[in-house]
User: Which sequence fits this backbone?
């Protein structure tokens, strides 16, 4: 019993040998005296063609099988005389593990991605999702491998949290109460009676907890699910998504950009190497030029430019922007697009106006900007966002008050600045945004196994 | 600028060289004319001794420093003449990045673990938690590496779910509503108005979703957080913990046990290799004989025995058990302990009475037991639990009804048996239970960065 992956890897060994495979019939062409099965076991992107003819003792049995059926099949690997493949397997014996009815929703024709979302539990069996979810798995391992090889500690920051300094409206509340019978006190829900003795949330970031570990292990990263309550139906928003959040002690903004650039190139390279078939498929059927785009990124030097310089360029641009570029404001999607095309590659934009960024970012000496950096990538927009953190206790507290942040639930986070604090930086990368970039798939719903979006939590 | 880890790895290169390190003062012994700093940067378990004397231009500055301070230090690496270390660093220059006050809670003395839990954000700086959380990180990577090298797909199963077939009492409900103003209809909470249009939960398992991917990729695993509302204050229960849940198509119970055994030995071996200092520390200060226990496991053959045979052995045992062993019942902790000691190693117990196990497990031909398997490990009890899954659609539905499971929200899961289903098996391993075994630390609160237990969600 071997996997199809192994068969492809050691084809010389298995050629002209009798082997047994287990997997699924992706397609079957039945002729009067012979037939072909398109067979896959999901262990690699490649399928294998199984051949049978009338001489075969299982001929009648095979001819009754349906697309989708699970089979155990024994046969001989032979060089193929047909077009389209270099080898095939001549069936000698076949056991049906589980047949599939005629009304199986996944027939071998072109289905829309919208339809496939409605059968989310079957879509991993299609070529597109075999490619996308294999890339997802391999990219995840690339990330772990990069950080582990570079001496980072992987931290499982908590998902359940009572720190609501980022604004609790954006977080899901959790409760062990029966929703019909929430105890009240003075007309308010009495969360002191709930399991944790107070209102708890599921988190939108692991950064605050991550920083506490960076102050002990120097270099750490998180990689886990995060949540937003955003009632937003766009191609790039989901209510549940995975984030990578590295945090590095003794690191300024320039060092942070070095890490971001090196990490991204490492991941892209790793995926290009380990998912050659999957990338080739996406290049052909999803985004023409994908492989070239990725190869180019690995070999490029990322541009580094300030927000102020970006606005200068946008103002000088011979373009009719919907939103007027402004030194005090965030940039719009159209601006991101212009800038990455202007530099023809990835662009780090630094030193953003402080009032549009988070309270814990380090204020620059100009008093107007913060040491923040966004990485803009051609075709995918903002891929990472990071900053140097405010390392001065009093400045941090002052900034929190200016921005109406309640620091009561995060006094421990602020205290890091009192107990052997140091300059440090970190960034966040949305894993799904990376996958959109790596696969060319446009909609976040198609890079998540079971996407959670407003009114959509059916599986 | 190098990490202490690199210094230890390439000591020959750096000996007698001037280098710069960045990290924290773990201890400082100030004498009249000289002094010693115990320095660590968290990149490895080993510290380094820094030496300074009155000739040093920074002498007065250093003598004012406190334990916990963050420093950048330049000096020469020299063979040590003192006892306790083979080399040390003679300080030439020092910059204080962040001092630490006299009342720093983490003074270099023996603190109780209970006290350290109260300063959870500082405890990663102690030797014990440097060891525990490094082992946690390395073990996590060992798990990913094992599965990726063996052709498994890593699946991010969703955390938010509406499938409540396991009993929604055990799951946290989530909502985007203000808890004070939950809309009602006919006196009940009207969850149809919430973000997902129905009541959603955070999940207790990724298995159901994992199976859908095993039917497409053959071999998959999950590794992510899971949640229980259990109001239980024991050493082994937490409300948030991480689980690994592999699922393998075309796999019976014997094959599953092979995988469990191989995987566990791989992880233990990996940790023994990569965390030698951390394991040595735990061996000395946490569990005497830890290293021997782990080494023995790697070289042992796990026993395989049925639940019925276990009860036979327990009934014959010359022991006064608190709970009487029973062929129809689960076994108690005292029984687990007896059995692992009886076989002097890990024991797979198979074929459990069906009524104490989950509804989706395959019923054996005797009609009384299910093809389930628990792995019992000396000192840690049940480490993994798995089963062959019921692959027959009608049998699965019948069993669900017998056990009062509402299959309405998991029709897709049941349908897997109709659409090219096949015999398949899977197991779950609680990551924290593995860590308790790997470190010798007894309380689950001490192997989780920020443990969530009843009334405890303070950081």
Assistant:
């Amino acid at each position: 019993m071997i996997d199809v992956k192994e068969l492809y890897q050691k084809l010389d060994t298995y050629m002209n040998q009798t082997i047994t495979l287990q997997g699924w019939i992706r397609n079957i062409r039945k002729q009067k005296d012979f037939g072909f099965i398109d067979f896959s076991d999901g262990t690699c992107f490649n399928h294998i063609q199984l051949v049978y003819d009338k001489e075969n003792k299982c001929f009648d049995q095979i001819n009754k099988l349906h697309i989708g059926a699970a089979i155990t099949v024994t046969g001989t690997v032979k060089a193929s005389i047909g077009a389209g493949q270099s080898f095939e397997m001549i069936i000698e014996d076949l056991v049906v593990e589980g047949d599939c009815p005629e009304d199986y929703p996944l027939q071998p024709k072109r289905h829309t991605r919208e339809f496939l979302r409605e059968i989310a539990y079957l879509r991993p069996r299609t070529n597109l999702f075999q490619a996308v979810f294999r890339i997802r798995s391999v990219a995840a391992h690339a990330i772990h491998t990069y950080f582990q090889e570079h001496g980072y500690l992987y931290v499982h920051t908590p998902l359940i949290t009572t720190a609501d300094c980022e604004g609790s409206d954006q977080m899901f509340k959790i409760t062990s109460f029966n929703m019909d019978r929430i105890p009240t006190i003075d007309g308010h829900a009495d969360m002191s009676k709930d399991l944790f003795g107070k209102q708890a949330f599921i988190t939108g970031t692991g950064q605050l907890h991550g920083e506490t570990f960076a102050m002990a292990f120097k270099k750490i990263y998180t990689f886990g699910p995060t949540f937003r309550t955003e009632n937003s139906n766009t191609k790039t928003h989901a209510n549940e998504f995975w984030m990578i959040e590295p945090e590095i002690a003794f690191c300024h903004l320039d060092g942070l950009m070095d890490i971001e650039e090196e990490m991204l190139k490492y991941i892209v390279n790793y995926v290009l190497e380990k998912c050659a078939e999957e990338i080739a498929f996406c290049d052909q059927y999803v985004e023409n030029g994908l492989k070239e785009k990725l190869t180019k990124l690995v070999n490029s030097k990322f541009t580094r430019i300030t927000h102020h310089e970006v606005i200068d360029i946008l103002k000088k641009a011979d373009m009719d922007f919907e939103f007027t570029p402004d030194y005090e404001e965030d940039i719009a999607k159209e601006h991101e697009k212009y800038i990455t095309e202007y530099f023809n590659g990835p662009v780090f934009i630094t030193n953003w106006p402080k009032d549009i960024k988070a309270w814990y970012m380090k204020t620059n000496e100009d008093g107007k900007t913060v040491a923040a950096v966004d990485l803009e990538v051609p075709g995918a927009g903002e891929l990472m966002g990071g900053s140097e953190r405010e390392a001065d206790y009093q400045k941090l507290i002052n900034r929190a008050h200016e921005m109406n942040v309640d620091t009561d639930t995060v006094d421990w986070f602020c205290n890091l600045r009192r107990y052997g604090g140091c300059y440090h930086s970190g960034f966040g990368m949305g894993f799904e945004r990376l996958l959109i970039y790596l696969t060319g798939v446009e909609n976040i719903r198609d890079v998540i196994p079971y996407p959670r979006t407003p009114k959509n939590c059916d599986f």
User: Anything to note?
Assistant: The mean pLDDT of chain B is 95. Chain B is about 30% helix and 25% strand.
